[in-house]
Amino acid sequence: MLSAVVTPAVLRAAISVTVNPTNVSLSSANPGTTPKSVNLTAKSDTAGVTLAWAPLNPPSLGTLTPDPVDPCKAVYVAPTHASGYISAVVLAKVTATKGTESAEATATIYLGPPAAPGGIYSRFILGGEMSGASAAPRTFKYFVDLYNSVPLGNSNPDGFGPRLRAWVDTRISSVPQSGSTTLLDFLGGSNPTINKFTDLKVNEVAQAIETMGGLQYRLWAQSEPRKMFFEDGRSRTTLHLVAAYGAVTPIDPKDTAAFFSYPVAGSPAADQLKQRYGLTGTGKNTLVITTLDRDRFLRQYYGGIRLNTHYYNDAGQPTRRPIRSVDILFGQNEAVTGGRWRGTVGRADFFLPIATGDGTGFVYVFGSAAFKLSRRAFEREPLILDPTTAPAKINAADVQLLPLGTGNRDTFKIGVGVDLLRLFAKLKKANAVTP
């Protein structure tokens, strides 16, 4: 007995759909007209197809109204305040369906001119960072960071401008801050951390300044934008060789002074103070630990690689999303090795821009770590002291001063920031008086 299995043929419709215009910039759309608008037309090359327009992405930047008579047509109208969102990109999507088959097409609408990589790149960021060292107290500080990168030359071999660029990054940190600001508070719409920053006294804003700059040379560039795993849009990666030199200002010893009750004689802490520093504590009630006076900046230099990620929309055009970067560097850093150049120091940095909900701004997440590579870790019994209030006179007879040298520990910092230029624009708008 013979049997046969018959598999029915599956007919698939070859559906494709396009939108005209595929890409448009409102800077050139119907000049002089307010609000700006774009007429979109969808077309499918397959008969019997149903077209449907989807909501905008992001939906907060304008409106998309399908034509009530002709479903192939729709009108995008920009918000009246579109000039404040010159870096935003709006996506209008149309879906074509026939039976169980479907296809999609997207129109990309720039609220300003498309980005053009290769020129001067700058960022100006205000944020808060948690910093510390290995087995040492953590501190929270506000900071302002200004980064500039300038092309050297006029070539453009792979769409990113000249291979050689000069760059400089300057960070100004405030005095350590007390309080319990949470990450959620900082990233929230009201941004209380920013409000607290504006309440700082002028002499509290710039406790330390770190600057580092140098050259970077592009060794390799990804040929085409590729889809990202967990984000919309596309990206291209570039690999750079980096050389950097910089310095950190030492902190005023008065600003680093920490006050403790002098441990009672015979206690483990009193014994350690005597063994390590030769202090007996006779007639002393308060111990003040501070840093040594220093007449030179803490210098650092590095060489290594930098990976940059450049962002594109689904149409393959560059967007204004800031560059994501990762640095792996090796060199020397006096701030990590006790105030002198000795041994090799490794440094790792990352900088990640995260788009906010409406796609018009970014929150920046960053991290940095510097660590010694030249010897094994040194461990010893911890010196734990009881904190106390500052004495009325720091030079009183019952006060013991203990100045210590520059730190000799691995360090780290991690934090978040916002675009300071965009913040100024929002503050200006909020303070504007409407007649």
Structure explained in plain terms:
It contains six helices and 22 strands. It has helices spanning 183-187, 192-198, 202-205, 253-256, 268-277, 420-431; strands spanning 17-20, 23-25, 37-44, 50-53, 63-66, 73-77, 89-98, 101-110, 121-133, 139-151, 164-173, 208-221, 226-227, 234-248, 258-261, 286-291, 298-312, 324-333, 345-355, 362-372, 399-404, 411-419. It is mainly beta and 435 residues long. It folds into two domains: 17-110, Immunoglobulin-like, CATH 2.60.40; 121-431. It has a ten-stranded antiparallel barrel with strand order 9-10-11-12-14-17-18-19-20-22. A four-stranded antiparallel β-sheet has the order 1-3-6-5, with no helix packed on it.
For the report, how would you describe the main beta sheet? 10 strands, antiparallel, barrel
Give me the count of strands.
22
Order of H and E elements: EEEEEEEEEEEHHHEEEHEHEEEEEEEH
Outline, from the CA principal axes? Answer: elongated
The assembly state of the depicted protein chains is single chain
Strand content: 35-45%
Count of distinct structural domains:
2
Number of continuous helical runs: 6
Low-confidence stretches: 1-12
